[in-house]
Amino acid sequence: MENVIIIGTGCAGYTAAIYTGRANLAPILLSGTQPGGQLTTTTEVENFPGFPEGIMGPELMMRAQAQAEKFGSKIEWASVESIEHREDGTFKINAGEKSYESKTVIVATGAAPRHLGLPNEKELIGRGLTSCATCDGAFYRDVPVCVIGGGDSACEEAGFLTRFASKVYLIHRRDELRASKIMADRALANPKIVPVWNSTVSEYLTDEKGEMRAIQLTNLVTGEVSELEVACVFVAIGHVPNSSFLGDLVDKDENGYIIQNPGRTSTKTPGLFAAGDVADHYYRQAITAAGQGCAAALEAERYLSDLE
Ligand code: NAP
User: Fold this and answer.
1) pLDDT (tens digit, 9 = 90+) per residue, 224-249?
2) Exposed (0-12), middle (13-18) or buried (19+): which is 85, by Cβ within 10 Å?
3) Residues with CB under 6 A from ligand 1
4) How far apart are CA 123 and CA 150, in angstroms?
5) Of all protein residues, whose CA lies closest to atom 41 belonging to ligand 1?
6) Which of 188, 193, 272, 288 keeps 20 to 30 A from 2, CA to CA?
7) Which residue has a Cα nearest atom 39 of ligand 1?
8) Would you say 246 and 107 are in contact if contact means Cβ atoms under 8 Å apart?
9) Are 267 and 164 in contact (CB under 8 A)?
10) Which residues of the chain have pLDDT under 50?
């Protein structure tokens, strides 16, 4: 029986591991399908305190992992399918062939990129449709590409893609970016970024090999439909929280974000805590996720000492 199982290895998960590890609770971290979380798909992180010159997202996560391991955390690859809360108050965590038993669970599973829901998108992922510029941007040199979205992610991805692409169309459904002013100004000042306002992508158009060739755009103000040639579409329209495996163990809002007890990371199930983007649709920052990971670790530690 473990003291703490932490599900997720993003900022929240690693921070929870550092704290519970230093408290001698020997945490087990289950890494899921995207070890390192969302920061492994970003470029430079400029707003994490302590790194005035910035730090690359993957490096920040590798350092967090090393720090968690230094204090005795054990990291295992396991994709959790369900959690049972047993009569004695402990948890059984089911992950394919493996299962784990623990007195407490910290859910730090983050959120996954949202897609538009167009008919052929599943087949196109990896064939000119992606949500990770850092992973796939370098494949599209000297060709036009587009980014869908108007937030910080869209602006960041567009800026990164200008290193490779001949032109980056930034397709947004309104005529004003949601991104923070510094990110928006930087994107709009970049001569390689061409904003396409008030528009949505209504169809992905493929070539004879089934690869992305162009997009069909619909102008939401005029209703005009047009076609734009792009070799790759980078989707940056927000995220969906990875909370479905929890069933009724937690309350969720209408978008699937876990509802924590007021002012706490605890949930309606005693011993089950939630931290980071899976429970936060509002701040969604690396540093706030780390803060919640710390809070969840402290709460789990207190919960365990109350059990004794
Ligand atoms: P976001 O801020 O929620 O922005 C999502 C964008 O996608 C919005 O512009 C939204 O349009 C658009 N959108 C949503 N659904 C759409 C749909 N079905 N069709 C077309 N467009 C759609 O998400 P994000 O950019 O991923 O950022 C998430 C959080 O991470 C934010 O808090 C952000 O500040 C943070 N972040 C920070 C940095 C940084 O500081 N370096 C970098 C990346 C992300 P509307 O504007 O019309 O709603």
Assistant:
1) 999 999 999 999 998 999 999 999 99
2) middle
3) 47, 116, 148-154, 156, 173-174, 178, 200, 236-238, 284
4) 25
5) 45
6) 288
7) 152
8) yes
9) no
10) none
pLDDT, tens digit (0-9, with 9 covering 90-100), for 136-164: 899 999 999 999 999 999 999 999 999 99
Which pair of structure tokens corresponds to residue 140? 């599209």
